[in-house]
């Protein structure tokens, strides 16, 4: 799953080109490593080590009660806490 996020960030770096070779090089190269490291740093700020995957963070804060609810009803949690509610709410 992390690779997918890295690929999307790399896609932005290659100006949304449809050239999959550029994206693969970005994801597997230094830029991809940097993106992955930055996610690792963000993870460490939340909880080290993570006790559960996925760990769901809302508004850059971990809350066990929200985590428990979100595992079973992520849409409901998002709709309840989002300031700008998505259309699905």
From TrEMBL:
<dbReference type="InterPro" id="IPR004911">
    <property type="entry name" value="Interferon-induced_GILT"/>
</dbReference>
<keyword id="KW-0964">Secreted</keyword>
<keyword id="KW-0732">Signal</keyword>
<keyword id="KW-0325">Glycoprotein</keyword>
<dbReference type="GO" id="GO:0005576">
    <property type="term" value="C:extracellular region"/>
</dbReference>
<dbReference type="GO" id="GO:0016671">
    <property type="term" value="F:oxidoreductase activity, acting on a sulfur group of donors, disulfide as acceptor"/>
</dbReference>
<comment type="similarity">
    <text>Belongs to the GILT family.</text>
</comment>
<protein>
    <submittedName>
        <fullName>Uncharacterized protein</fullName>
    </submittedName>
</protein>
